[in-house]
């Protein structure tokens, strides 16, 4: 595309004012998410790739919510409010009012058409400029045109007009070429014709599509470009279309990473947000979700049955059957299976978080292991530590949370409870079943289990007639008989 200049510039207008009633949602349609971003966010990203001179987003329904989301994605965008006059034509008209001296080209996009890519839009703008048309619209040929505006051509095959579904005759409705809702207009011609567009239709709206017919009446050139892939033009009007758009976007994303050197064993069950980053030689196993701003380094293996949200995974790490959010997993570390990493988890290089372990706000040092059946929260663990099975940090006293600090090379016995706040010194050891309520000095052995006391005959006396009592009686009788036999032999 040619370099933007004052008289050869591009302005992008994104329509995001609709209510989207078919979504049946309190959330505005354009804010529903696929691939880690709201629908309108995908449109904004593609628009920015074109390096336009201006990007304007027209809002109305749930104005503040949509505007905040738009500015969160692109702070440089100009948010334009549509007034009480309904229709896409009016939406574009109020946007143009914010560009009074603009004489370049205007690319009009819909905030609910998220799959259009840079190549397709760049080719559309280039075709428009090469053909010196007053307007160029994108069309698509579909099997079922229901719900879309129909492109009506003249006897010579040129674009004559666009008829909305609700205003179409039976013959017009049978047309399979649809308006994809993407246009490039010469700004001056667009302004002139929008001033002439009325609301004489069944919906009482000011249609942008009426501009096409008016341009033709003035003998101005109107061109059409058929989309290279009809799926690119998919608009989202209900939850079924939202799911389909998400599936198509995910397939595109998965394929992109495969071509970048990532092994994805089962693309059909792998979901990767467009905001995630994967290095070459990553392996992704089935039923895995890599979401939001997750970054996975080279050689890591993720999955199966794993969800990573805003996580960092180091080189050569392995994460299996794990649910992790806002966690950092170091190089060559191993996580899972069946681990739950909550926000604030940091596992250093070579560390391990094993089976049925939950962590939160926990820093686990280099080479340290929490192998199984543990809860580690609000904890700092040094390097070379091994926590026995069933380790629990009791971090909450019903009022506040407290930290546990475990030094380097600490080894704990099975089924330990660390009652925070508590500090375990470097090289210390704790016995099995210990409840650690006081600080343990470096190199000390901490024991807190009372001596074992056996109450003979308790089951038979307190649970008579039970299977346990009968078994105990038989065992005692057998032992007594054995003792008698040994005495006789002696």
UniProtKB/TrEMBL annotation:
<feature type="binding site">
    <location>
        <begin position="110"/>
        <end position="112"/>
    </location>
    <ligand>
        <name>UDP-N-acetyl-alpha-D-glucosamine</name>
    </ligand>
</feature>
<dbReference type="GO" id="GO:0006048">
    <property type="term" value="P:UDP-N-acetylglucosamine biosynthetic process"/>
</dbReference>
<dbReference type="InterPro" id="IPR050065">
    <property type="entry name" value="GlmU-like"/>
</dbReference>
<feature type="binding site">
    <location>
        <position position="112"/>
    </location>
    <ligand>
        <name>Mg(2+)</name>
    </ligand>
</feature>
<dbReference type="GO" id="GO:0000902">
    <property type="term" value="P:cell morphogenesis"/>
</dbReference>
<comment type="function">
    <text>Catalyzes the last two sequential reactions in the de novo biosynthetic pathway for UDP-N-acetylglucosamine (UDP-GlcNAc). The C-terminal domain catalyzes the transfer of acetyl group from acetyl coenzyme A to glucosamine-1-phosphate (GlcN-1-P) to produce N-acetylglucosamine-1-phosphate (GlcNAc-1-P), which is converted into UDP-GlcNAc by the transfer of uridine 5-monophosphate (from uridine 5-triphosphate), a reaction catalyzed by the N-terminal domain.</text>
</comment>
<dbReference type="GO" id="GO:0071555">
    <property type="term" value="P:cell wall organization"/>
</dbReference>
<feature type="binding site">
    <location>
        <position position="164"/>
    </location>
    <ligand>
        <name>UDP-N-acetyl-alpha-D-glucosamine</name>
    </ligand>
</feature>
<keyword id="KW-0548">Nucleotidyltransferase</keyword>
<feature type="binding site">
    <location>
        <position position="414"/>
    </location>
    <ligand>
        <name>acetyl-CoA</name>
    </ligand>
</feature>
<feature type="binding site">
    <location>
        <position position="29"/>
    </location>
    <ligand>
        <name>UDP-N-acetyl-alpha-D-glucosamine</name>
    </ligand>
</feature>
<dbReference type="GO" id="GO:0008360">
    <property type="term" value="P:regulation of cell shape"/>
</dbReference>
<feature type="binding site">
    <location>
        <position position="389"/>
    </location>
    <ligand>
        <name>acetyl-CoA</name>
    </ligand>
</feature>
<feature type="binding site">
    <location>
        <position position="179"/>
    </location>
    <ligand>
        <name>UDP-N-acetyl-alpha-D-glucosamine</name>
    </ligand>
</feature>
<keyword id="KW-0963">Cytoplasm</keyword>
<feature type="binding site">
    <location>
        <position position="375"/>
    </location>
    <ligand>
        <name>UDP-N-acetyl-alpha-D-glucosamine</name>
    </ligand>
</feature>
<dbReference type="GO" id="GO:0009252">
    <property type="term" value="P:peptidoglycan biosynthetic process"/>
</dbReference>
<comment type="similarity">
    <text>In the C-terminal section; belongs to the transferase hexapeptide repeat family.</text>
</comment>
<feature type="binding site">
    <location>
        <position position="82"/>
    </location>
    <ligand>
        <name>UDP-N-acetyl-alpha-D-glucosamine</name>
    </ligand>
</feature>
<comment type="similarity">
    <text>In the N-terminal section; belongs to the N-acetylglucosamine-1-phosphate uridyltransferase family.</text>
</comment>
<keyword id="KW-0133">Cell shape</keyword>
<feature type="binding site">
    <location>
        <position position="237"/>
    </location>
    <ligand>
        <name>Mg(2+)</name>
    </ligand>
</feature>
<feature type="binding site">
    <location>
        <position position="432"/>
    </location>
    <ligand>
        <name>acetyl-CoA</name>
    </ligand>
</feature>
<feature type="binding site">
    <location>
        <position position="149"/>
    </location>
    <ligand>
        <name>UDP-N-acetyl-alpha-D-glucosamine</name>
    </ligand>
</feature>
<feature type="compositionally biased region" description="Low complexity">
    <location>
        <begin position="468"/>
        <end position="478"/>
    </location>
</feature>
<dbReference type="GO" id="GO:0016020">
    <property type="term" value="C:membrane"/>
</dbReference>
<feature type="binding site">
    <location>
        <begin position="87"/>
        <end position="88"/>
    </location>
    <ligand>
        <name>UDP-N-acetyl-alpha-D-glucosamine</name>
    </ligand>
</feature>
<feature type="region of interest" description="Linker">
    <location>
        <begin position="240"/>
        <end position="260"/>
    </location>
</feature>
<keyword id="KW-0808">Transferase</keyword>
<feature type="region of interest" description="Pyrophosphorylase">
    <location>
        <begin position="1"/>
        <end position="239"/>
    </location>
</feature>
<feature type="binding site">
    <location>
        <position position="386"/>
    </location>
    <ligand>
        <name>UDP-N-acetyl-alpha-D-glucosamine</name>
    </ligand>
</feature>
<dbReference type="GO" id="GO:0009245">
    <property type="term" value="P:lipid A biosynthetic process"/>
</dbReference>
<dbReference type="GO" id="GO:0000287">
    <property type="term" value="F:magnesium ion binding"/>
</dbReference>
<dbReference type="Pfam" id="PF12804">
    <property type="entry name" value="NTP_transf_3"/>
</dbReference>
<dbReference type="InterPro" id="IPR025877">
    <property type="entry name" value="MobA-like_NTP_Trfase"/>
</dbReference>
<feature type="region of interest" description="N-acetyltransferase">
    <location>
        <begin position="261"/>
        <end position="490"/>
    </location>
</feature>
<keyword id="KW-0677">Repeat</keyword>
<dbReference type="GO" id="GO:0003977">
    <property type="term" value="F:UDP-N-acetylglucosamine diphosphorylase activity"/>
</dbReference>
<comment type="pathway">
    <text>Nucleotide-sugar biosynthesis; UDP-N-acetyl-alpha-D-glucosamine biosynthesis; UDP-N-acetyl-alpha-D-glucosamine from N-acetyl-alpha-D-glucosamine 1-phosphate: step 1/1.</text>
</comment>
<feature type="binding site">
    <location>
        <position position="237"/>
    </location>
    <ligand>
        <name>UDP-N-acetyl-alpha-D-glucosamine</name>
    </ligand>
</feature>
<keyword id="KW-0460">Magnesium</keyword>
<keyword id="KW-0511">Multifunctional enzyme</keyword>
């Amino acid at each position: 595309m040619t370099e933007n200049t004052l008289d050869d510039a591009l302005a992008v207008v994104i329509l995001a004012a609709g209510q989207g009633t078919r979504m049946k949602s309190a959330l505005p349609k354009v804010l529903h998410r696929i691939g880690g971003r709201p629908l309108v966010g995908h449109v904004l990203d593609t628009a920015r790739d074109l390096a336009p001179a201006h990007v304007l987003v027209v809002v109305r329904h749930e104005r503040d919510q949509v505007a905040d989301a738009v500015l969160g994605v692109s702070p440089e965008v100009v948010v334009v409010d549509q007034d009480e006059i309904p229709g896409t034509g009016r939406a574009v008209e109020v946007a143009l009012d914010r560009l009074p001296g603009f004489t370049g080209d205007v690319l009009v996009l819909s905030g609910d058409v998220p799959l259009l890519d840079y190549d397709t839009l760049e080719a559309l703008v280039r075709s428009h400029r090469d053909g010196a048309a007053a307007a160029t619209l994108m069309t698509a040929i579909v099997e079922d045109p229901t719900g879309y505006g129909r492109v009506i051509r003249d006897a010579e095959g040129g674009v004559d007009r666009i008829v909305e579904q609700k205003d179409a005759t039976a013959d017009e409705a049978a047309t399979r070429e649809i308006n994809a809702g993407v246009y490039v207009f010469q700004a001056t011609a667009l302004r002139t014709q929008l001033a002439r567009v009325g609301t004489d239709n069944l919906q009482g709206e000011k249609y942008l599509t009426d501009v096409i017919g008016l341009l033709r009446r003035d003998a101005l050139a109107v061109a059409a470009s058929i989309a290279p892939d009809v799926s690119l033009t998919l608009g989202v009007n209900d939850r079924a279309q939202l799911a389909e758009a998400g599936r198509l976007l995910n397939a595109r994303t998965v394929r992109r990473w495969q071509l970048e050197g990532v092994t994805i064993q089962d693309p059909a069950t792998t979901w990767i947000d467009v905001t995630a980053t994967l290095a070459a030689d990553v392996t992704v196993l089935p039923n895995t979700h890599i979401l939001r701003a997750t970054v996975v380094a080279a050689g890591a293996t993720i999955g199966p049955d794993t969800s990573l949200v805003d996580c960092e995974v180091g080189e050569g790490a392995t994460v299996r059957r794990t649910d992790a959010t806002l966690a950092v997993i170091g190089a060559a570390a191993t996580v899972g299976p069946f681990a739950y990493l909550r926000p604030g988890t940091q596992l250093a290089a070579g560390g391990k978080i094993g089976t049925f372990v939950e962590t939160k706000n926990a820093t686990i040092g280099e080479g340290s292991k929490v192998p199984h059946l543990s809860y580690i929260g609000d904890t700092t663990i040094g390097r070379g530590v091994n926590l026995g099975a069933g380790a629990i940090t009791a971090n909450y006293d019903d009022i506040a949370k407290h930290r546990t600090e475990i030094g380097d090379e600490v080894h704990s016995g099975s089924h330990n409870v660390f009652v925070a706040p508590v500090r375990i010194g470097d090289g210390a050891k704790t016995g099995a079943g210990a409840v650690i309520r006081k600080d343990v000095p470096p190199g000390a052995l901490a024991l807190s289990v009372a001596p074992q006391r056996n109450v003979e005959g308790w089951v038979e006396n307190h649970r008579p007639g039970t299977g346990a009592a009968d078994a105990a009686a038989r065992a005692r009788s057998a032992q007594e008989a054995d003792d008698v036999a040994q005495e006789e032999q002696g």
